[in-house]
Amino acid sequence: MTRPRIVQTFVSIINYWITMEKRKGLLSKIFSNTRKPQGFFGRLMVAGMNGGSHASMATWGLEKADIPQAGEILDIGCGGGANIARLLARSKEAKVIGADYSPVSVAKSSKVNDKAIAQGRCEVREADVAALPFGDGQFALVTAFETVYFWPDIEKSFSEVGRVLVDGGTFLIVNEDDGLSGNNEKWEKMIEGMHTYTPDELKTHLTIAGFKQVEIHRDKKSHWLAVTAVKC
Hints:
Elements: H1 3-31, H2 39-48, H3 52-62, E1 72-76, H4 82-90, E2 95-100, H5 103-112, H6 114-118, E3 122-126, E4 139-145, H7 154-164, E5 165-175, H8 184-190, H9 199-208, E6 211-219, E7 224-231
Parallel strand pairs: 1-2, 1-4, 2-3, 4-5
Antiparallel strand pairs: 5-7, 6-7
């Protein structure tokens, strides 16, 4: 191979590498919106959260918990608001409060559930799981769909969930990946701050945070994971 051809090949390799790095950067920017939706890509992300496999997984997960028919329910990381609507549909009189630290998610969830908000059965607030702006023992059920991946100081966050639950109240976690699919490393590299917990990891953290009766439910084919834990 002549020197010009060597240089040309080297330049082609460099250009390909630059293109791939830019693509990875763009993908990382897009998928980082699963953690905290922002801007244009964030609006696309929260819209996508409300359908497809997310909807099927959420319906499957809700079957693993008893939905209170009165009192208050909290959905942390409410995203596009579809799970708030599902909870409202399954409870006759309970008020459902959605919480998310993304203003984009709060706006979308509020729009999706505007009728229930007008009726006083729903409220959506901007909030951080590490310091929830709710009273002790306020909720009969707390749900978290595809969000604990991103919670900082997971045991402190779980303790905060326990604080706002009534004694005997249930915490329901539903994840699309059980940490055993083999895909978690790819996503964790792409999305900063993400950790895909295994069933055993979640059980350990919940127990340390003071929860009892931790039950694991898995769909082994799809690797969906639902975990229920009771505040005693």
